[in-house]
What does this fold into?
Amino acid sequence: MASTMVAEPIRAEAVLAALGPTAASRFSDLQVVAETGSTNADLLSAPGALSGLTVRVAERQTAGRGRRARSWVSAPGAALAFSVGAHFPGLATSLALLPLAVGVACCTALRRLGAPVTLKWPNDLVHLHGDGTLRKLGGILVELKALGPDQWWAVCGIGINVLPAAYQGLPDAESAQLPVSVAELGLDAPRETLLAELLLELQTVLDAGPDAWPLLVAAGRAFDSLMGQPVRVIEPQHQWSGIAQGWNDDGRLQVRDSQGANHSLVSAEVSVRRQSGVSE
It folds into this structure.
């Protein structure tokens, strides 16, 4: 399977064909490049057309970025690294649920293909391994750029391990994470098929817009890998333990501490680690 996945680069025309004519028409610009620093940085620097969705795919990323400024690199053919850009009007607060909505969309697409993945709040695609650890399949990074008063260019970056780490020939950029790949999860699908399925789900979410995201995020609680689990919360000044209670309608993680007090956590301010396994 490894050889079939890395033998040929991703072809934009094959991805568009897999999407079908109706969905493909929504992607006004879909580009595949051999190498770039970061697909998110590419799209942030050059916002796409007002109509349609813009996609940038890289066979290799040399300066990919994860949450909290962590680096994420990918070797040619061993991962799926891409970003989708869309325009949104309104206040920035109206887009607060976008990262979780994208995560739910990715879980939905991957599960439809047969990959048993869940979502670790706020932005990790993970698999619960037999030894009780969470293995990271991929990550999501959503960034906003203001284009004018109440006009936003939202870039949704997604990186997914397609082949095991040994095939990548690169050190794990986040050594605290135990990785897993779609190949190890038994998903025997070409990267073009994988990308098309993810884009179909992302198109639905992005086209639905902020008004539809609360219901999507609520339904996505079924994918929550932290619900009811002991977690370690790492804040800038201290750490503490509690039990995760799931995310609320605003996308904030609810954690009950050892004293019975409930805390509502914002993703930009904390890291959360599952006590019985590997996370963040």
In short: Residues 1-7, 170-175 have pLDDT under 50 and may be disordered.
